[in-house]
Amino acid sequence: MDKKVRVRFAPSPTGGLHLGGVRTALFNYLFARKNNGTFVLRVEDTDQNRFVEGAEEYIVNCLNWCGITPDESPNNPGAYGPYRQSERKPSYRKFAEQLISDGYAYYAFDTTEDLDAKRKEIPNFQYGQATRMQMRNSLTLTISEVEELLAAKTPHVIRIKVPTDEIVHFNDLIRGDVSFETSLVDDKVLLKADGMPTYHLAVVVDDKAMEISHAFRGEEWLPSAPVHILLWKYLGWEADMPAWAHLPLILKPDGHGKLSKRDGDRLGFPVYAMSWTDPKTGDVTKGFKEMGFMPEAFINMLALLGWNDGTDEELFSLKELEEKFSIERISKAGAKFDFEKAKWYNHEWIKSQGAERLAASVKAELEKAGIEVEDDAFLSTVIDLIKDRCTLLPDFVAQSGYFFASPAEYDVNSVKPKWTVEKADFFKAFAGGLTLTDAVTAEAAFKALAEEKGFKPGELMLPFRIMLVGGKFGPGVFDIAVLLGVEETKARIVKAIAVFNS
């Protein structure tokens, strides 16, 4: 590539980070890594009405959890700062005024009441070529009137003057040639009455100042592209304009429309990377992290929503994604979100990890459930024994809790209908002579005693499992017994016999 690769993820600090936003950050990150470039986090906090306290820190925490930490950011500034738009405020008016001087923008003094009246008068009102000469702006007022209004600090915005009957073309790295008729584009506000820029002006000015080479963003921004391309041209920066790549939407599970938080609430799955607490209401929206997803699985799942490496392979580490990622393999079509598939990724990642990678997370889940873990080596052995049975990290509680405490309840209904005095005697005899050197030997002794007492081993396996575990689940019952040890296994047999006999 001719120029150094610099890409940016530019979220607004307004609330939870949607998985679509994380995917945009991920594709930026992967492209930067693949091309020895720089991944920038720029916080677009110019909309003060929507700014939410704590949201920026939350975004940073999400990216860190995912393992896609920016090279430059407000917390790790480089040579292109500041990295918050609110701290770049003085630069925007200068360029807005330059656009007015060059005839590409104008002051608009219309009040909220003026605009509301026009919306009532004209259905689907757009402030643009067809209506701008009916409004109160520097195109319809005299120079002296405009100067008087500005001198009196009359509230106003600055709007781009979109040309009439032109075609704006650009090459999208995903979609190929894209064109727009300017007659369908309205005169977007560039600078608001509070002096803050809108996204349209700020994104162009900041991308130029930060020497951004490639701009990855969601498909929903495509309608804004002609305004941005005109601004690059009008400001004289066309040669420095980044290459554009508009990413496909992440769709609802049924494929109809963009996935929203409401869909997650309705269907019972998260759409945020991490849990978000609304500072005003205190409402908590659960995230993938808190639901029990590993970051490796979350990133793996996101990468394959709209991208593949051209093979049937589905499991990729972040390092592998960095090596294999290419824009050419990004799909134009939207990608349907499938929560069951997301859980499949997590299950596969849990299965593939050693106990040392899982131990801290599993220990935290157990402690949240009130289960104390005193022996980390024992925990690691338990994890390796049961991880294949766990889809989400909280599953380790149900699947391993009985290793740390004797069952408080038993699935007695699965035992009692066929429970007999003879079975009770069998288990007393088995406990009395119990040795647990290894699972194979223990199972052989169990079967030999069953045969001696006139039982089929299959009749006794379920009661034995429920004695140790409390229910009909878990790994091999003799593996469980060996881990529990002789004394604990005996104690659980005795305790359960009393319950089954009652």
Automatic annotation (TrEMBL):
Sequence motif 'KMSKS' region, residues: 258-262
Chain ranges of the Aminoacyl-tRNA synthetase class I anticodon-binding domain: 360-497
Keywords: Aminoacyl-tRNA synthetase, ATP-binding, Cytoplasm, Ligase, Nucleotide-binding, Protein biosynthesis
Domain of life, per lineage: Bacteria
Uppermost EC category: ligase
EC numbers on record: 6.1.1.17
Location(s) in or outside the cell: Cytoplasm
Domain Glutamyl/glutaminyl-tRNA synthetase class Ib catalytic span(s) in chain numbering: 4-344
GO CC, any one term: cytosol
Catalytic activity: tRNA(Glu) + L-glutamate + ATP = L-glutamyl-tRNA(Glu) + AMP + diphosphate
SUPFAM superfamilies linked to this entry: An anticodon-binding domain of class I aminoacyl-tRNA synthetases (SSF48163), Nucleotidylyl transferase (SSF52374)
Entry function: Catalyzes the attachment of glutamate to tRNA(Glu) in a two-step reaction: glutamate is first activated by ATP to form Glu-AMP and then transferred to the acceptor end of tRNA(Glu).
Family designation: Belongs to the class-I aminoacyl-tRNA synthetase family. Glutamate--tRNA ligase type 1 subfamily.
Summary of subunit composition and partner proteins: Monomer.
The protein's name in its UniProt record: Glutamate--tRNA ligase
Biological source species: Pedobacter psychrodurus
Lineage, opening ranks: Bacteria, Pseudomonadati, Bacteroidota, Sphingobacteriia, Sphingobacteriales
